[in-house]
Each structure stands twice: as structure tokens, then as C-alpha cells.
Amino acid sequence: MKHFDEAATRAPLGFERLVPALRAAFATGAQVPPRHVHAVDTAAGDSSSKGTVLIMPAWSDAGFLGIKTINIFPGNSERGLPGLHATYVLYDARTGVPLAMMDGNEITARRTAAASALGASFLARTDARRLLVLGTGRIARMLPAAHASVRTIDEVWVWNHRPEGAQALAAQWRAEGWNARATTDLEAAVRQADVVSCATLATSPLVRGEWLAPGSHLDLIGSFTPAMREADVRCFEGALTWVDTEEALQKAGDLLDAMAAGTLRSEEVGGTFATLCRQERPGRSNAAERTVFKAVGSALEDLTAATLVWQAGNAK
């Protein structure tokens, strides 16, 4: 059984390779059972120690089976720790033999950022250039590179509920060559953005529908449970909404709120990654319409990334 550490897991997962791999994987499909979700609230812990454990299996005709275990503890930010920790185990789907242990944090972050970019490749305007990122975590940090693989992004703004975090990330991006700036005026930034990408663990809406400009694309990739939400119900009103998988309609607090309020009906959702990648339905049809993409994540994405890592490690 091989072990791929953080660097070895990261190396084959450049977005120029991972985004097309996800497109091909959703077009082909795989076996993806519903994820297991478990709340963790130990008797010895305080409220900041509450967490969620996700167990996400998937297997494909290519002969690989993978299981990711991911632990989400939002209170870790108060401890100076990442809110997400994950491991990934890849198996031979024909025999069940374990093949490799991989860095689940890298797989999760990179496949999530790549899925965000894949959604934008169908739904953002072709001339989109200004990206606003909400959040400063591992996934948020990758979004400029991910989106630049599908659109000509030449200006990046970042907002965070802790302004010093946004300032630090903007400085890091500038050091990497991005035209980046931090903002404390979220409304003004949203109004001016071509793409608004939310990668937070928020439980109350951050983005308001009246702020979104015509022709803009709203990307919601942070929240993944009914108790989490990054956008208010008006964000979906009059917009073309797509989801990564049908599971989003049962798991995403943003969508559940909008459907309860009547600003979104499930039958009005444009479709999923599968329908987009198989070219069964078009994405954006004109430059003026407003689009929304909501993702809760899929084990297919993890399996696709893990397969790339395995193949790269065995090509040497």
C-alpha cells in the first residue's frame, strides 16, 4: 500500500489537468452512493468542538474504488487550525485490495476548486475577468488559479469576516503575481464582480440577491448541510441555477431556503454536472442572464483526483 503525502498528492492535480478530468468523469459517470453524515458532539467538548464527519465512497468501471473520510470542525478557526481534515484511501475495485493512502485535504481542496471552475466554464460569461472570493481557507486560496484555467481572470478581490485574513491572503496572491486586493465592503465588491465565489462555512447568508449584477455568476461551494448557507433567497430569484448533483437539492441550506421562500423551484433547476458535461442541456445562453452554481461535493470528484494521483505515481 503506497502513501502519497501532501506534496505527492498535490503534484499531479494542476487545474489545467484536473478540470478536464472532472468534465470527462461526469460525462462518463460512476457509482456514487449517498454520503454518510454524522454529527460529532462529545460530552467533554464545548460548543466550539462540535463537528461533522462525512464518509464518501465511489467506484468506477476503470477499476478503482475510493473512500474519503472528512472531518469538519468550524470552531477550529478559533484555535488557529484548519476547519477541515480528510484522508483518502484508494482500492482496487475488482479485489478490494488497498492501493494507496492519500492526503485527503489536498484532494478535497483541489477537486472543490476545480469543480468551481468547471461550473464557471459553463455558466460564467466568456469575458468574465473580475473574481471576488469570499473566505480565506484552503479552498478559497486556490480559486484564482482554478478559475484562470477556464476564464481570463486578471483581477481578484477577497473578503473575509476577519479583515486581517483577507489582507494577508491578498498579499500572498500579489506575491504570486495576481492583481489582488482585500475589501471590507462586501456589497460594493459583489456589485462589481463578474464571478462571486463563496468558499466559507457560513451558517447565515453573506451575499444578497439585490447586490448581484446582471450577467454575473454566483458560485456557492462552501456550505454543504441544511444548516449552512452563503446566499440569501433572492440570489436565486430570476437567475439560472445549476447544481453539481441532485444531492444538493436535499443538502444545501441555500437551496432549501430558496425553495421554501418560492424564489426557486426544484423543477426550474437547469440540471447537474452530468447533464452539462454530457451536453444534454446548455449552460449560459446569453451575456445578460444571471447564473448560480451550487455544489455540495461529490465522491466522483474525489475518485477522479485520486485516480490522477495514482496514475502519476505509477508512471515513474
Describe this protein's structure.
By secondary structure, the chain is an alpha/beta fold. It is 33% helix and 22% strand. It is built from ten helices and 13 strands. A seven-stranded parallel β-sheet has the order 9-8-7-10-11-13-12, with helices on both faces. Helix 2 crosses helix 10 (299-313) and helix 3 packs across helix 4 (138-148). The mean pLDDT is 94.
Q: How many DSSP helices?
A: 10
The largest pleated sheet is described as:
7 strands, parallel
Neighbour order of strands in the largest sheet: 9-8-7-10-11-13-12
* Beta-strand segment tally: 13
Low-pLDDT residue spans: none
Task: Give the N-terminus to C-terminus distance in angstroms.
Answer: 16 Å
- Order of helix and strand elements from N to C terminus: EHHEEEEEHEHEHEHEEEHHHEH
Helix content: 25-40%
| Structural class assignment | alpha/beta
Beta-strand content:
15-25%
| Principal-axis shape | globular
Rg (CA only): 19 Å
Average pLDDT works out at 94
List the topology elements.
Layout: E1 2-4, H1 6-10, H2 15-28, E2 36-40, E3 51-59, E4 64-72, E5 84-92, E6 98-103, H3 104-123, E7 130-134, H4 138-148, E8 155-159, H5 163-175, E9 180-182, H6 186-192, E10 195-198, E11 217-220, E12 240-243, H7 248-251, H8 253-261, H9 273-277, E13 291-294, H10 299-313
Parallel strand pairs: 1-6, 7-8, 7-10, 8-9, 10-11, 11-13, 12-13
Antiparallel strand pairs: 2-3, 3-4, 4-5, 5-6
Helix pairs in contact: 2-3, 2-10, 3-4, 3-10
